[in-house]
Amino acid sequence: MKHQYLFELGGENTELGKIEAIELLSTEHYEPTITLDENAIIAIKVSKVIKSKVVRRLGMTKRVSKIFYKDKERNLENIVNEIPQIDIGQNTFAIRQISKKTMSEKDVATTLGRKIPNHNKTRLERPEVKILYYAGTETIISIWDQTLETYYKRCLKHHIKNRPFFSPIGIHPRIARSMINLANCSEGETMIDPFCGTGGMLIEARDMKINAIGIDIIRKMVNYSIGNLDHYGLKAKVVEGDIESSKEYQFKAVVTDPPYGLSTTTKGEGVSELMKRSMNLFNKTMKKGERIVMALSNPELVKNPNYDEIYRFQWYIHKSLTRNILVLEKN
Ligand SMILES: C[S@@+](CC[C@H](N)C(=O)[O-])C[C@H]1O[C@@H](n2cnc3c(N)ncnc32)[C@H](O)[C@@H]1O
After folding, report:
1. Are 305 and 291 spatial neighbours (Cβ–Cβ below 8 Å)?
2. What does the radius of gyration of the chain's CA atoms come to, in whole angstroms?
């Protein structure tokens, strides 16, 4: 039980959210193992306490809390008779039930409330600590505080409608963030987005202190990226040029949302040729085990014998557009 955490995933794409969490924790050497998997609710065992700055990287997890109790017992009264007091320092608190409501909120609060020391005050609005109760195939009691804040809500400030330089091609910040977290990069390592557009990937990477290089063939897009980064107080290397210029840089991963072929321009080159050319180019500079994470309508376009497909997630955008998020690893 020592280091187990409850992850409540956003409803947009729970598979992507789950793998984002596992991959990030593996990259940061937490040796994660899933101990409960109930769609948007997962429990993960790790080898040490998860640092706030790692939790903060998560784009697709709504909330992370530290597990205090987890077992098959279903009767909360019996559980409360068995568990020790819940020590939450001097903090204010609220007791909440997650997803499946098996008991009234009031009953959960009075039963579980017996385990909170008398000096702690209840505060329903903005409590410093939340005691969470989940009744699924197992019963979980977990504790959330501000040090476990994810970026699920906060990354909305990076949403295209909140950026000064706007283009409809911009990717949602939650997806951008999760894509970067699938690329195995830690703070201080470098990723490249060779089709950077208005800078969605660069913003999320820099916000997580990952070095970022952006390339775009259109001057206006380069200026948009720089302007958007600047708006959030962030800096990255952004250059005007064809993808070909990526070979001048050293990077650990490629994270990108290439042209769809419809509304974005490729200066006359077919998307299929462009993707083939990109894969051959990356292959020249990338090392075994390094990753490319790409959002793509047609995954066939990036089939390449030098890369294994590790994951594929589908992302429905609208009736005629589904994007696939591919994670490829150099073999
Ligand atoms: C789908 S957009 C990227 C959107 C980006 N993720 C964002 O948040 O704005 C693709 C970008 O690729 C650029 N592009 C097209 N062909 C290119 C090439 N050969 N080399 C570099 N960039 C190219 C386009 O100008 C466009 O800005």
Report:
1. no
2. 22
Q: Is the fold of 4-148 the same as that of 156-330?
A: no
pLDDT in tens, 200-233: 999 999 999 999 999 999 999 999 999 999 999 9
CA pair distance 7, 11, nearest whole angstrom: 12
Contact assessment for residue 194 and residue 246, using Cβ atoms and an 8 Å cutoff? yes
Q: How far apart are CA 250 and CA 66, in angstroms?
A: 38
Q: What are phi and psi of 141, to 5 degrees?
A: -120, 125
For the sheet with 4-9, list strands across it: 33-38, 41-45, 4-9, 61-71, 139-145, 129-135, 93-97
Query: 156-330 has which CATH code?
Result: 3.40.50.150
Token output for 254: 């490629």
Identify the bridge partners of residue 328 per DSSP, sorted by sequence position.
292, 309
Tell me what percent of the residues of the chain surpass a pLDDT of 70. Answer: 98
Specify the CATH architecture of the domain 4-148: 2-Layer Sandwich (3.30)
Q: Give the residue, by CA position, lying nearest to ligand 1 atom 16.
A: 266
Angstrom CA distances, 24 to 32, 53, 105, 140, stand at 9, 12, 34, 23
Measured in Å, residue 115 CA sits from the centre of ligand 1 at: 55
The domain spans of the chain are 4-148, 156-330
Instruction: Write down the pLDDT at residue 264.
Output: 56
| Closest atom of ligand 1 relative to the 176 alpha carbon | 6
pLDDT of residue 281: 96
Ligand 1: atom nearest CA of 256 is 6
Q: Which of 56, 143, 128 is nearest to 93 (CA)?
A: 128
Taking the model in full, what pTM does it have? 0.95
Q: Which residues line ligand 1 at a C-beta cut-off of 6 Å?
A: 167, 169-171, 194-195, 197-198, 200-201, 215-218, 221, 242-243, 257-259, 264-266, 274
Burial of 129 (0-12, 13-18, 19+ CB in 10 A): buried
At 173, the amino acid letter reads P
